[in-house]
């Protein structure tokens, strides 16, 4: 049975703000796997990446986190499908930052005005047919014997051979047994010094197939040393003074150590064998294995970094380490044999090398522009910003044409250009046709200019803040004239952290107005204390009656059903002296408990008197609710309910609640009335976008990673955080975790 890809992410509680670099990291790994130096993202994990059917990124331009929660009820599909959500830092040029700063996509403009980087189905290997590695070895995996140099190749590349001119007196290893694909590999490397005779061996290293060093010996040359070449060889006069080992001793030891079917591996191994004055019939030369055009060769240092992710021959070291070089060459050969030519060709080493050289040139130019006295400081503390290679170009090179659909496209400079004549409906129709033919797609939907004015943004911000305030606020009473305020505060504090408490005296009998920090606390107070006896009075607990909270019950219900809150419960009534370790110990007996999140005040850093518990199964969360209600932890009685804002919403509410109207500004009542019609139209647009994404999502193959991005806004119209939702589609149509 084919494995399904899964996605896990530590996006619970406060760990939910993701930078553009981290997002790029995810998309690069999802698209390329371990090729092109792509690595697992640091903030989430993709299981079985190689089984992904594709990657689809849906970008909703000019839309932010503010829009998602203002029109939360309109986004029926998004909030029920995508479990993983995160906050995004807004960017003025989001598309360029998403693709990589080095992006140079060349879209084609269709008759409908849609931009596309390629919608035809191209065989995955078609872009590799001209790669020198594929031309030399084909695409299929082969055994190691296929990569052993032939006699012709050895002769052409100046390998010492029996009967060759200048090889008289050379020692034969006598490893003449026929080679098979199971023959043992040995890495060999030598360091040489220049003597009166020419290049002579001064150090020899041999490693086995497991990378174990079998030989690492200094050798005294026969002739007088003219140049120790210490910078490269690492050899000094002092090192060779006590050495008594001579070349014949090394030749004898190598003959004894190598089995009769040994295959030697090295980088430009001909030079090492010439210096050793030895002949060996079976060699794999990594400088020739990783083939290039026109007889050029990659350096070992570059191959180790690009293919193995290892740094060798570091400048801070004195000279090369032959054991390190021998091991690197051996591992390169093993990688080539195990992965096969096609996988190696997909690394696109030529492009990586070009990128490195361009970065080096840029760095050198930047350093050259500095005054002489400033250059050293510049190099140490503030290296110039270098463009990031675009992974979409890597896909294009391997024949996997990425698809870019929408009003925006990238020009050659990486700047965005817009085509406003294209409708979201046209983009959807084209996406439904072309996305199944592409392994990586970016589909962009946009709002019209009338929906991104500074007045509308400020109005939305003001309305959301006002609604949140009303939902976080409860009124309780009536109380007796001489009621104990401390008792009231203690009782309502058991529901969660209180931001403010005010006594209302304008009424016949006193009431209290309490504003909470979290939605769950206000809801818990309404559910558990309405009709209860508090401070000697039977009281009523309710939210303020305003137009903004008329749909509060519907919103609370939908938040409970939100897939992000599935299996999560809210627990209140904790004493401030209780530590996270105390809670871990207290709740350890709860079945299937996965994570505990103890919220902190984002200004003081002190934890609040509540926490969230996330369970692996929803049934376990429901069972825990029954157990926890009434529990006592260190003398404090607990209350609990289903979570409403356990993920990044908790942080966003806190920020909105403490922004003091700075983002929205003061909007006059008259202006708010004028914006009402536009807001109604915007509500319809949001509903349409949700429907577009639903249709597109349903058309995707199972095992497709889908990422929906609200880029946020960072412009003259104001700044609003973005939002990301992601998941891998499974058989049920929902995103797999």
From TrEMBL:
InterPro entries: Nucleotide-bd_a/b_plait_sf (IPR012677), RBD_domain_sf (IPR035979), REX1-like_exo (IPR034922), REXO1/3/4-like (IPR047021), Ribonucl_H (IPR013520), RNaseH-like_sf (IPR012337), RNaseH_sf (IPR036397), RRM_dom (IPR000504). GO terms for cellular component: nucleus. Pfam families: RNase_T, RRM_1. SMART domains: EXOIII, RRM. Residues 672-699 form a coiled coil. Gene3D superfamilies: 3.30.70.330, Ribonuclease H-like superfamily/Ribonuclease H. Residues 472-546, 567-645 form the RRM domain. Keywords: Coiled coil, Exonuclease, Hydrolase, Nuclease, RNA-binding. SUPFAM superfamilies: Ribonuclease H-like (SSF53098), RNA-binding domain, RBD (SSF54928). GO terms for molecular function: exonuclease activity; RNA binding. This is RNA exonuclease NEF-sp. It comes from Antrostomus carolinensis (Chuck-will's-widow). The lineage of its organism: Eukaryota, Metazoa, Chordata, Craniata, Vertebrata.
């Amino acid at each position: 049975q084919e494995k399904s890809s899964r996605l896990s992410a530590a996006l619970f509680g406060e760990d939910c703000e993701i930078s553009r670099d981290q997002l790029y990291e995810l998309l690069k790994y999802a698209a390329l796997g371990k090729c092109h130096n792509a690595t697992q993202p640091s903030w989430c994990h993709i299981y079985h990446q190689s089984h992904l059917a594709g990657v689809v990124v849906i970008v909703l331009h000019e839309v932010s986190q503010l829009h998602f929660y203002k029109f939360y009820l309109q986004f029926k599909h998004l909030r029920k499908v995508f479990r993983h959500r995160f906050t995004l830092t807004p960017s003025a040029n989001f598309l360029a930052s998403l693709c990589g700063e080095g992006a140079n996509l060349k879209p084609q403009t269709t008759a409908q005005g849609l931009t596309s980087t390629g919608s035809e189905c191209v065989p995955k290997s078609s872009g590799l047919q001209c790669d020198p590695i594929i031309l030399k070895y084909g695409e299929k995996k082969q055994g190691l014997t296929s990569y052993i140099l032939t006699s012709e190749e050895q002769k052409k590349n100046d390998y010492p051979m029996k009967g060759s001119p200048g090889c008289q007196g050379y020692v034969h290893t006598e490893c003449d047994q026929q080679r098979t694909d199971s023959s043992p590999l040995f890495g060999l490397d030598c360091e040489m010094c220049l003597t009166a005779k020419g290049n002579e061996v001064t150090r020899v290293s041999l490693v086995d197939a497991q990378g174990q060093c079998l030989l690492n010996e200094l050798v005294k040359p026969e002739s007088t040393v003219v140049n120790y070449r210490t910078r490269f060889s690492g050899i000094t006069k002092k090192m060779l003074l006590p050495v008594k080992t001579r070349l014949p001793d090394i030749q004898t030891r190598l003959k004894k150590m190598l089995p009769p079917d040994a295959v030697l591996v090295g980088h430009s191994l001909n030079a090492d064998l010439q210096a050793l004055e030895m002949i060996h019939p079976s060699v794999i030369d990594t400088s020739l294995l990783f083939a290039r055009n026109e007889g050029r060769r990659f350096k070992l240092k570059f191959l180790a970094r690009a293919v193995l992710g290892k740094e060798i021959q570091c400048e801070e070291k004195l000279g090369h380490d032959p054991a390190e070089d021998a091991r690197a060459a051996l591992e390169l050969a093993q990688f080539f044999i195990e992965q096969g030519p096609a996988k190696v060709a997909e690394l696109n080493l030529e492009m990586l090398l070009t990128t490195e050289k361009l970065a080096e040139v840029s760095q050198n130019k930047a350093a050259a522009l500095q005054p002489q006295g400033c250059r050293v400081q510049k190099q140490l503390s503030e290296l110039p910003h270098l463009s990031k290679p675009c992974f979409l170009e890597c896909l294009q090179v391997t024949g996997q044409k990425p698809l870019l659909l929408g009003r925006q496209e990238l020009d050659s400079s990486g700047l965005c250009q817009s085509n406003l004549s294209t409708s979201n409906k046209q983009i959807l129709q084209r996406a439904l046709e072309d996305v199944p033919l592409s392994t990586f797609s970016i589909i962009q939907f946009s709002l019209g200019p009338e929906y991104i004015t500074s007045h509308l943004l400020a109005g939305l911000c003001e309305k959301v803040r006002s609604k949140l305030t009303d939902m976080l606020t409860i009124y309780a009473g009536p109380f007796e004239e001489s009621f104990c305020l401390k008792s009231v505060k203690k009782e309502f504090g058991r529901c969660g952290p209180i931001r403010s408490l005010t006594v209302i005296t304008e009424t016949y009998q006193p009431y209290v107005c309490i504003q909470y920090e979290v939605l769950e606390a206000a809801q818990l107070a309404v559910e558990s204390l309405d009709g209860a006896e508090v401070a000697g009075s039977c009281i009523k607990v309710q939210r303020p009656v305003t137009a903004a909270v008329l749909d509060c019950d519907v919103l609370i219900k939908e938040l409970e059903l939100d897939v992000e809150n599935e299996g999560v419960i809210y627990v209140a009534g904790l004493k401030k002296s209780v530590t996270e370790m105390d809670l871990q110990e207290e709740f350890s007996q709860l079945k299937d408990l996965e994570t505990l999140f103890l919220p902190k005040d984002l200004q003081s850093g002190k934890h609040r008197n509540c926490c969230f518990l996330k369970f692996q199964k929803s049934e376990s969360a429901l069972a825990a609710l029954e157990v926890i209600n009434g529990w006592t932890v260190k003398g404090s009685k607990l209350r609990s309910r289903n979570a409403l804002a356990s993920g990044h919403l908790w942080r966003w509410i806190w920020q909105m609640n403490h922004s003091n109207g700075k983002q929205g500004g003061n909007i006059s009542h008259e202006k708010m009335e004028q914006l009402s019609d536009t807001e109604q139209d915007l509500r319809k647009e949001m509903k349409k976008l949700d429907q577009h994404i639903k249709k597109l999502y349903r058309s995707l193959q199972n095992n497709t990673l889908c990422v929906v991005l609200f880029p946020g806004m960072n412009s003259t119209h104001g700044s609003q955080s973005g939002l990301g939702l992601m998941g891998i589609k499974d058989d049920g149509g929902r995103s797999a975790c």
